[in-house]
Amino acid sequence: MNGLSKALAVGSLLSGMLSGSALACDALQPGPSGIVAEIIDGDTLLLADGAKVRLIGIQAPKLAQGREGMVDWPLANVARNALSDLVRGKRVQLRYAQTAKDRYGRLLAHVFVEPNDIWVQQEMLERGLARTYSLADNRLCLDELYRAEARARAERAGIWSDSFYAIRSAGQPEKIAALAGQFELVEGAVQSTGHSGGRVYLNFGTDYSKDFTIVINADGLRLFEAAGIDPDELDGALIRVRGWIDLYGGPRIMVTHPEQIEVLAR
């Protein structure tokens, strides 16, 4: 069985190819516990000891919080209030996946509410108040998070009933281009693959100056190889990719790790 077939066999997620993914959350390393003192937004909180915690693995709707040129995303206050209801004033246990702290000094952790061990990331996704959001250096537990997101999306819960968070069609590159700078989910059939400059390109059209493209960088290709996945086998597959839209000719998403891509059909 080749790499892509294996991925399809374990739930249509490329993340299913990763060793031990079914037990990913058992692999989390215990971190500190503390009382939640303040909620910053739907995926960031402060502990009573002053530690700022970013809930790794999800992205909730963002609040502008005075940042120039930014406005609140739809349902951002709803997400913050939901997180507050879940954790404010309660004791939580932090558990680390891979990288435990970012460049801003925030702790990057999965958060569990004691004593019932409620997994906060999963709960926010189940309520439709976050999207699964992974990084190349923090990739554990994603199978479970994707499943929680899919249940909420099927029920059109929370953000999934708002067009701001709609899944975009790769066949409408002009609409995707208008979303440059935003985090988006895009679906479409891969028309061809190409290699240049140590990168792999998944093309969704024939006009590279305007059509949507996925670019897998060199570091990302090493992670694909480690997972036993050949990106060229995605040629012809219907896939969903998530990431930040930028423009280089046409709109594109840079892929740094396999879990950004879901295989929907072959």
- What's the CATH topology label of the largest domain? OB fold (Dihydrolipoamide Acetyltransferase, E2P)
Helix proportion of residues, in percent?
A: 10-25%
Radius of gyration, rounded? Answer: 19 Å
Beta strand count:
16
User: How confident is the prediction overall: mean pLDDT?
Assistant: 90
SS strand fraction: 25-35%
What is the H-and-E element order? HEEEEHEEEHEHEHEEEEHEEE
The SS-based structural class is alpha+beta
Tally of separate domains: 2
Which architecture of the largest domain per CATH?
Beta Barrel
Summarize the main sheet.
Answer: 8 strands, mixed
Distance between the termini: 14 Å
Low-confidence segments: 1-13, 15-24
Global geometry: globular
What key phrases describe this protein's structure?
about 270 residues, alpha+beta, OB fold (Dihydrolipoamide Acetyltransferase, E2P), 2 domains, eight-stranded mixed sheet, five-stranded mixed barrel, globular, disordered N terminus
What would your notes on this structure say?
Helices cover 20% and strands 33% of the residues. The chain is of the alpha+beta class and 266 residues long. A hairpin with a 2-residue loop joins strand 1 (29-41) and strand 2. The chain is globular.
Question: Outline of this structure?
Answer:
The protein is an alpha+beta fold.
Write the layout of secondary structure elements.
Layout: H1 3-9, E1 29-41, E2 44-47, E3 52-55, E4 57-59, H2 76-87, E5 91-96, E6 107-113, E7 118-119, H3 120-126, E8 131-133, H4 142-154, E9 168-169, H5 173-177, E10 183-189, E11 192-196, E12 199-203, E13 213-216, H6 218-226, E14 238-248, E15 250-255, E16 261-265
Helix pairs in contact: 3-4
